[in-house]
């Protein structure tokens, strides 16, 4: 069997030099690499560098290869996965819109193999609504978005937008090759054998490694490989005026633990998160939102593509009807402050789960101060969930803590779990979901 082939797309970004390390990392894992570059990428790294690394011709212009009049199609057909790293905001936007005006974007449109993109850009460009909508649209179509990291950016700003670590990008690509092989979805080298797990080497990041090992070896079981998981997490915040909001005490710990555990078990995970102070788990795509309505909008596409959806977020049931766009002042605005009118928010879980497919598994949480099990059973039905994780909330319980005690409620009955860390609980909940399937 021949080695698997990854087409590495390089776009015009200061992080383009890291593509060389990505190519080396994939080659070390036994992958043949070909490279396609945009013209702007050539301003940062020369094609000669990639030609030397890959011993393959490097493609840039649509009409460069006179011997191959349909170069974009042959490039697309030859690869088992197409990884674009770094991917600029511009290229992500073009792919999201189906624009194909150079060799790289034309090849992306012609590719039937798994497509992965690793965005890298300035923090404000990354957080811009247009970019986030484009990334969400791509995720919804099954494109794997390798979440950018946070830190000091080349432009001097600090924030999210840094190209993900090379190990994370290599690990995600190897995972995609392995999953494509399992499902027969590769477009390239027929019979290509994805690299052996050990070939990833010691450098692969936890959660992004392609190693599939039995739990007994200390590594997590990869029983969710090939599945897409969506998790909602954290609180929502609902503006009252320019400086105040309504919210709750959710820290996001439970949802982030679930996302991390699902990724470690091999799933492709999208985390839709309200405002929290937690780092994105390795290898997980994070969509950040503030309000309940934003959470519903952001969750639609990942939910539609998900095999499993877990709703841990503490979504505000109500929001101020008419938030002021200035600070409401004590004295001058007393009447308005005393008479704040609330309107009901959409129920993210119930709205999405109403349309769930027969093959999807949907899990809700129930945060209760009274009649925990009775309310959880009612929510199982009213929210169209397959499983409800019920927890008692209140002073020092569940919200913000590192451990939790829950009951698992499904159509078959109720199971009480002992107090345990949220990390252990995340695995217990995933075990219960696997048991439902
Ligand atoms: O984030 P942590 O600090 O780790 O805390 C964890 C937690 C306490 C937030 C978590 O364990 C938990 O209980 N999450 C659900 C909180 C909640 O809002 O529960 P609820 O009983 O009000 O809602 C039931 C379900 O409907 C939940 O799955 C919730 O995500 C969903 N919901 C609720 C209201 C709404 N408008 N939209 C929703 O999707």
How would you sum up this structure, described in words?
It is globular and about 70 Å long. About 5% of the residues have low confidence. It has 14 helices and 22 strands. With 437 residues, the chain is α/β, with parallel strands linked by helices. It folds into two domains: 187 residues, Flavin prenyltransferase-like (Rossmann fold); 223 residues, CoaB-like (Rossmann fold, 3-Layer(aba) Sandwich). The strands form six sheets. Strands 13-12-9-14-17-18-20-21 form an eight-stranded mixed β-sheet, sandwiched between helices. Strands 3-2-1-4-5-6 form a six-stranded parallel β-sheet, sandwiched between helices. Helix 1 links the parallel strand 1 and strand 2. Helices cover 32% and strands 22% of the residues. The protein starts with a strand and ends with a helix. Ligand PMT binds next to helix 9, helix 12 and strand 17.
CATH uppermost class of the largest domain: Alpha Beta
Major beta-sheet overview: 8 strands, mixed
Give the helix tally.
Answer: 14
Give the count of structural domains.
Answer: 2
What CATH architecture label of the largest domain applies?
3-Layer(aba) Sandwich
Q: Helix/strand-derived class?
A: alpha/beta
Q: Order of strands in the sheet with the most strands?
A: 13-12-9-14-17-18-20-21
Low-confidence blocks of residues:
196-219
Termini gap: 34 Å
**Rg of Cα set:** 23 Å
Which percent band covers the strand fraction?
15-25%
- Bound heterogens, unique: ligand PMT
In the CATH hierarchy, the third-tier topology of the largest domain is known as: Rossmann fold
The CATH superfamily of the largest domain is: CoaB-like
- Shape descriptor reads globular
Number of strands: 22
Mean pLDDT: 88
Helical amount among residues, as a percent range?
A: 25-40%
């Amino acid at each position: 069997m021949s080695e698997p082939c990854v087409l590495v797309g390089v776009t015009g970004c200061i992080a383009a030099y890291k593509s060389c390390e990505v190519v080396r990392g994939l080659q070390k894992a036994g992958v043949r690499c070909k490279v396609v570059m945009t013209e702007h990428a050539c301003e940062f790294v020369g094609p000669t560098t990639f030609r030397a690394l890959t011993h393959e011709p490097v493609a840039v212009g649509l009409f460069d290869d006179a011997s191959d009049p349909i170069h974009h199609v042959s490039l697309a057909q030859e690869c088992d996965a197409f990884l674009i790293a770094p991917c600029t905001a511009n290229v992500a936007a073009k792919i999201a819109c189906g624009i194909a005006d150079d060799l790289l974007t034309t090849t992306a449109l012609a590719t039937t193999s798994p497509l992965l993109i690793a965005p890298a850009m300035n923090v404000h460009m990354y957080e811009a609504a247009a970019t986030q909508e484009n990334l969400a649209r791509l995720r919804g179509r099954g494109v794997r978005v390798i979440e950018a990291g946070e830190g000091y950016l080349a432009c001097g700003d600090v924030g999210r937008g840094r190209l993900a670590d090379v190990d994370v990008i290599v690990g995600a690509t190897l995972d995609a090759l392995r999953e494509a092989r399992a499902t027969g979805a590769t477009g390239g080298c027929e019979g290509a054998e994805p690299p052996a797990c050990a070939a990833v080497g010691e450098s692969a990041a936890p959660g992004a490694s392609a190693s599939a090992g039995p739990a007994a070896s200390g590594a997590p079981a990869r029983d969710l490989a090939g599945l897409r998981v969506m998790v909602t997490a954290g609180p929502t915040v609902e503006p009252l005026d320019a400086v105040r909001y309504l919210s709750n005490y959710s820290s996001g710990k439970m949802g982030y633990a679930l996302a991390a555990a699902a990724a470690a078990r091999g799933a492709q995970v999208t985390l839709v998160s309200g405002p929290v102070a937690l780092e994105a788990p390795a290898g997980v795509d994070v969509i950040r939102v503030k309000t309940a309505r934003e959470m519903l909008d952001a969750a639609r596409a990942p939910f539609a593509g998900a095999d499993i959806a877990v709703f841990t977020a503490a979504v505000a049931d109500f929001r101020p009807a008419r938030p002021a766009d200035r600070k409401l002042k004590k004295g001058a605005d007393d009447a308005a402050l005393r008479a704040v009118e609330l309107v009901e928010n959409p129920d993210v879980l119930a709205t999405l789960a109403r349309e769930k497919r027969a093959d999807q598994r949907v899990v809700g949480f129930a945060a209760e101060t009274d009649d925990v099990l009775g309310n959880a059973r009612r929510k199982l039905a009213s929210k169209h969930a397959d499983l409800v994780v019920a927890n008692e909330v209140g002073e020092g319980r569940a919200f913000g803590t590192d451990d939790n005690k829950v009951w698992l409620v499904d159509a078959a009955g109720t199971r009480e779990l002992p107090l345990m860390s949220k990390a252990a609980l995340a695995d217990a909940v995933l075990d219960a979901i696997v048991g439902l399937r």
